[in-house]
Specification:
This protein has helices at 2-17, 22-30, 33-44, 56-67, 116-133, 155-166, 201-214, 234-238, 276-294; strands at residues 72-76, 85-90, 95-105, 140-147, 170-177, 191-195, 219-222, 244-248, 312-314, 321-336, 342-357, 364-372, 377-384. The protein is an alpha/beta fold and 385 residues long. The protein has two domains: 2-302, Aminopeptidase, CATH 3.40.630; 307-384, Immunoglobulin-like. The strands form two sheets. Strands 1-2-4-3-5-8-6-7 form an eight-stranded mixed sheet, with helices on both faces. Helix 3 (33-44) crosses helix 5 (116-133). The structure holds zinc ion. The site of zinc ion has 7 residues, from helix 5.
């Protein structure tokens, strides 16, 4: 029973907050549609069937979270010869045993399937939420899980939730992202469909509250009565009495926004994953909810003004373009070749995320230098092929 008491108290606290926290708004604004799109593009090109020898996708996710400097990153192996769940945790500084989870499955329904909306998009949402949220520390723990085995019957999440229940883990809430990037034409204003059960209703209230406080131009629709309301990993948590909410691009079969491309070869970027604004809005809502739930720690000063600058460059190796993301607004980007000669130099109008054309650079190793508004000069190796 204690599992239910805490979230109730929590929900009330959140609803009574009703005031914006500038630090949360900053993280919400940090969520970037180009980033989400690039993760979808990368994942779509990878083998992600749960029973496969090709482990590139799981390594990609693992090293992504490692780059973000998470306290804990691990593979949750639950079945021989199946790719594992990939788990990353930001451990709470005050109440490490109280945990909020955001998850999305990365597997696909068949070998070789692109699975862009289903569910490279939700995985990308989890990845981007991690990137935004890692800029602070929290009182409670936040766990990011990329599940496998979903398409074969919610297998990865079922094992995960079962173990969490057996070990009596204090999981206060779970947010599941499955298909977050499709609408009829791709240009519709974001409408977030959600599904809740009898003991998760407070999460729908908090979703609404998070949107009102932090996310622009977005509405919600309740799909709890939909045929698809239990059709993803959150149901594994419901079955173990953990509160959870399912966020999705459309749970109404009759709506023009419903995605009929999924589980086909046409579930690709541009066609099926076509609404950047929607993917961004859903990810932003998650960032706001989780930041409120976990509570920014009073010890989070190390990132107070994004002084700590987690520079990320991808793809790397690259041959056409790179996206550079920094924790502080970028003013200048320079690239030096192996002889120390500057081969590219670009002024930037204080952007957190920049796309740079590197197609003019020859193959080889380069040093990329990023000067931010706060004066920091971050350097990283860039490989062009
Ligand atoms: Zn799915």
């Amino acid at each position: 029973m204690k599992r239910f008491l805490l979230p109730m108290v929590f929900a009330v606290a959140f609803l009574h907050a009703r005031s914006q926290d500038a630090r949360i708004q900053q993280m919400v604004d940090h969520v970037n549609a180009d980033s989400i799109w690039s993760y979808i593009e990368t994942l779509s090109s990878m083998e992600r069937y749960s029973i496969t020898e090709d482990t590139a996708a799981m390594h990609y996710l693992f090293s992504y979270f490692q780059q973000l400097d998470f306290d804990t990153v691990y593979y949750h192996h639950y079945k021989d010869n199946w790719i594992p769940n990939v788990v990353a945790e930001k451990t709470g500084l005050e109440h490490p045993d109280s945990t909020f989870i955001i998850g999305g499955h990365y597997d696909v329904y068949a070998s070789g399937a692109p699975g862009a909306d289903d569910n490279a998009s939700g995985t990308a949402g989890v990845m981007e939420a991690a990137r935004a949220l890692c800029l602070h520390d929290y009182d409670k723990s936040v766990r990011f899980i990329c599940f496998s085995g979903e398409e074969l019957g919610l297998v990865g999440s079922a094992y995960y939730a079962e173990q969490a229940a057996i070990f009596d883990e204090n999981i206060l809430a779970m947010i599941n992202l499955d298909m977050i990037s499709h609408s009829a034409t791709g240009t519709e204003d974001p409408e977030i469909w959600y599904a809740i059960n009898s003991f998760s209703g407070w999460m729908a209230d908090d979703l609404q509250e998070a949107i009102e406080l932090y996310v622009e131009n977005t509405t919600t629709a309740n799909g709890s009565g939909s045929f698809f309301a239990r059709a993803s990993d959150h149901a594994s948590f419901w079955d173990r009495d953990f509160p959870a909410i399912f966020l999705n691009d459309c749970l109404d079969w009759d709506s023009p926004n419903f995605n009929n491309y999924i589980h086909t070869d046409n579930d690709v970027l541009g066609t099926s994953a076509n609404n950047q604004e929607l993917a961004r809005s859903i990810t932003q809502s998650c960032v706001a909810m989780l930041a409120h739930y976990a509570g920014i720690s009073v010890f989070s000063g190390r990132n107070e003004d994004f002084a700590r600058n987690p520079l990320m460059i991808y793809p790397n190796p690259a041959n056409q373009y790179i996206i550079i993301q920094a924790g502080a607004p970028i003013n200048q980007i320079s690239v030096f070749n192996g002889m120390g000669k500057m081969v590219l130099d670009q002024s930037i109008a204080a952007e957190y995320s920049v796309k740079i054309d590197i197609s003019g650079l020859g193959r080889g190793f380069y040093l990329l230098s990023v000067i931010s508004e706060n004066g920091s000069n971050n350097q990283q190796k860039l490989i062009v092929y």
